[in-house]
């Protein structure tokens, strides 16, 4: 279907490329409506074939029927010429390599016609050179409505130039020329045997050519090969230029265009767009080229997989190019006046002088509530576990999920990230907390209601919208809310967070798998030998206490602890296999696991349901609390020190590094929705606001009668 001169030109250019041309020239008059002439030096058309060259369903590009299943050319020459001959005066001058002269024929409505009345319709011999010259005159002469719609020859010629320019990128080995009839200079002129980059520099601009990224990738599943030239983040345009060829065909593909816009959005300013030239190669049998009247679109198999593959390789290419930016400055000519910053301020209107730099106290750090994509393009996320081969603790979460915190691309234990870890860094997608099942137990609902009733509105907002600044010590962290800076007591904060998480996630907890499993009897018996256990002869024999604790936790209460609290035991080996993950990607200090098991057996009120669940949650909170490096490993017997030391090394990942504290800050923000919000008895702020001129002091938590703030171990539980 011929809509405008550019459609006819596209079909005729493809015929010239199929003919093996190395030079193609396009001449236009009146925007292609009066004359459109295409000259090539291809193989030409035999004289005996000229009579049927423009008939429908005629082609020289298929040799047998099976070729229809894997079309590797641009289609049927006769189809394009037949369409043109019905709406224009068409003439063909052609000469083959073994022909003594050229032949010229005129066509109308897919049939040979005489050049003048009374002449023969047969092709006439004439002078010429090897190749083919196709002239299309008076396009749409017999379709008045279509001719009237194309009133602007300049617009039509610009579309012709655009088509020639795009084909010159896909076929750099062919020399293309495009000009108006009678002009001495060509609007498009490329040399044969040039490169894609050279043609981009020649047609578009040298500035674009300097900022190009070359991409060449191939995938076996899906089966596709991609070659592309992309503009890097230093370059942008007002409108996106997307040149797409699929198996050599100039086409449009909206899904791929949307994919490119999405990939570039974090790198370019609002309203800026990239330049992308892309050539895709599919097996011919996986491509359908006859789905659009003008062949402007094609269909290929596994479209979603192909787009995912393109997004992955382009993101990887852009991420590697975003390490630096280039800025071009103009050098002042000799004798030019140097305008200082103070002079520039004096020339500004009075109302704008104070708006150049806002006062520090009014500047707010970026928080987790900022729209995803505004900041992630300039940072790299650490995966949840950087050393998977030596890790003693693993979670049942998928390893590809982002940890949620944004840190510099350096391992927090020192040194640069390994190359294999950098290749699998997760995409910059903000993690969402998964939906959890609602517990129907009345006692658990009552405990949750207590948390929500004691929630403090001010602390709720602080925990929800704060920005993590840094760690002052192992147990103190700085957070900013608005323009105020607060000092947070991490032990109290994490203790309260663990308590509320235990109640909120009751019956639906993620699990931390211990490797190797922990021997319950051995750990309990060993901790009884430490001063922290407070054992005395009046308490009974140590072996009997270890037997009682093991029997209670593993055999009597093991099933309940596994179903409700994610704490699973192996009854036959008396091994503890899993612990609950109360704070995402945070591992409790496992060197305190023996004392936790002992307290879980003797400090929990097992007589009533509500007291039982509450005291279990309190013991978990005490165990998961961030603390200042205190350990009981040195007091353990020698046979258990290796286990405790290894576990303590693993727990250090979640205890003192600034990157983990930053992640904890984001975990608290993500949990605000259902796990209560910063409560009266929650995180102790140690009081004072340390930044922001004239700011109010940090909100205080209410004290108990004895003057200490209540924590997760008391009945006054606050929300965080």
How do the helices and strands line up, and which of them pair or pack?
Layout: H1 5-18, E1 23-29, E2 35-40, H2 77-87, E3 89-95, E4 102-108, E5 111-113, E6 124-126, E7 131-137, H3 144-149, H4 153-170, E8 175-180, E9 188-189, H5 196-203, H6 206-210, E10 212-220, E11 223-231, E12 241-246, E13 249-251, H7 254-264, E14 275-281, E15 287-288, E16 299-300, H8 303-321, H9 341-347, H10 350-353, E17 393-395, H11 419-423, H12 442-453, H13 457-465, E18 467-471, E19 476-481, E20 484-489, H14 490-504, E21 511-519, H15 520-527, H16 542-556, H17 558-565, E22 569-570, E23 575-580, H18 593-602, H19 609-624, H20 638-651, H21 658-670
Parallel strand pairs: 1-8, 12-14
Antiparallel strand pairs: 1-2, 2-7, 3-4, 3-7, 4-5, 4-6, 8-9, 10-11, 11-14, 12-13, 15-16, 17-21, 18-19, 19-20, 21-23, 22-23
Characterization of the model:
- There is one protein chain.
- Helix 12 packs across helix 19 and helix 16 packs across helix 18.
- The protein is built from 21 helices and 23 strands.
- It is an alpha+beta fold.
- The chain is elongated.
- Strands 1, 2, 3, 4, 5, 6, 7, 8 and 9 form a nine-stranded mixed β-sheet that branches. Strands 10-11-14-12-13 form a five-stranded mixed β-sheet, sandwiched between helices.
Brief sketch in words of this structure:
The chain has 720 residues and is an alpha+beta fold. The protein has 21 helices and 23 strands. Helix content is 32%, strand content 17%.
